[in-house]
Amino acid sequence: MATRTWTPPAPYDMGRTLGVLARGPGDPAYRVDPDGSVWRASRTPQGPGTLHLTSERGRVHAEAWGPGAEWLLETLPALLGAADDPDAFTPRHRLVHEAHRRHQGLRLTRTGLVLESLIPSVLEQKVTADEAYRAWRLLLHQHGEPAPGPAPRMRVMPSAQAWAMIPSWDWHKAGVDGKRAATIVRAARAAARLEEAAAMDDARASRRLQAVPGIGPWTAAETLQRSNGSPDAVTVGDLHLPKVIGYALTGAGGTDDEAMLELLTPYEGQRHRACRLILLTSVRPPRRAPRFAVNDMRAL
């Protein structure tokens, strides 16, 4: 086990900062203990690693295990949001100002790991969150490997080669259709090139990701928000986000992507942060339709 301690320079909320890395309840690669400490299993450039983080008296203490332990501790400040600049954000709406005031400890995480954020984002394409989270759990349990260290029942996601070798029947059992499975396989085969996007600016990184067929603006933004800590990678093509943003900022429903981007114009360069803050409020448009039913591909 190796250790490191990081002291945030300002009020800090570890749970809010890292929570976007969890892929639903029961994520085999991310766990929060009752005391608020966080366990995270990752496949780093140096191999599998497990990170345990506790926040106490204004400091974050990290313990790491496995071949990737050194890499996880070296990149710890970026993961915790040290490279983020929340002072660059200026609220332009009363609701956003209040959310910003209430969540001063929020930072944008930067994992530096593209495939780790890309693959679950592909799984979330055009399906319910529950379907995507279930697929992620099943695939990690079947094709991942046990996380190093004392974290019980946690799994490290498969290597790029292992993702590319998953047989069609295992994708089917996990409820993943052929289009999403093929996109993940193509991404896995181009993993080395895609990982380079972690060091690029948003525009270049997005183009690099979208060069893979099946990866569009939605998936690219969802990935870069986590891998690169992008404050401006706003998610377009989402079913719900435009409606939430539109209702929160104007009180009106029926907002589409174009209208959402226009509303977010005052936050150019910080649009993702603005969306994060809005989503942390309880303001939501009234529900006018039942939730989408979960499609079970295994029955097909």
Give the end-to-end Cα distance, rounded to a whole number of Å: 46 Å
Share in helix: 40-55%
What is the topology, as strand order, of the major beta sheet?
Answer: 1-5-4-3-2
Q: Tell me, what is the CATH class of one domain?
A: Mainly Alpha
Structural class: alpha+beta
Shape: globular
Count helical runs: 15
Name the CATH superfamily assignment of one domain. Hypothetical protein, domain 2
What's the mean pLDDT score? 95
Q: What is the β-strand count?
A: 7
In CATH, the architecture of one domain is: Orthogonal Bundle
CATH topology (fold) name of one domain: Endonuclease III, domain 1
How is the main sheet built?
5 strands, antiparallel
Organism: Streptomyces klenkii
Keywords: DNA damage, DNA repair
InterPro entries: Alkylbase_DNA_Glycosylase/TA, DNA_glycosylase
Protein name: DNA-3-methyladenine glycosylase 2 family protein
A few lines on this structure:
Strand 2 (30-32) and strand 3 form a beta hairpin. It contains 15 helices and 7 strands. By secondary structure, it is an alpha+beta fold.
Question: What structural keywords apply?
Answer:
7 strands; 12% strand; single chain; Endonuclease III, domain 1; 15 helices; alpha+beta; globular; TATA-Binding Protein; two-stranded antiparallel ribbon; 300 residues; 5-stranded antiparallel sheet
Can you tell me about this structure?
The protein is of the alpha+beta class. It contains 15 helices and 7 strands. The protein has a 5-stranded antiparallel sheet with strand order 1-5-4-3-2. Strands 6-7 form a two-stranded antiparallel ribbon. α5 runs antiparallel to α12, α11 crosses α12 and α13 crosses α14. The longest helix is centred in the middle third of the chain and has 15 residues. The model has no long low-confidence stretch (mean pLDDT 95). One of its GO terms (cellular component) is protein-DNA complex. Keywords: DNA damage, DNA repair.
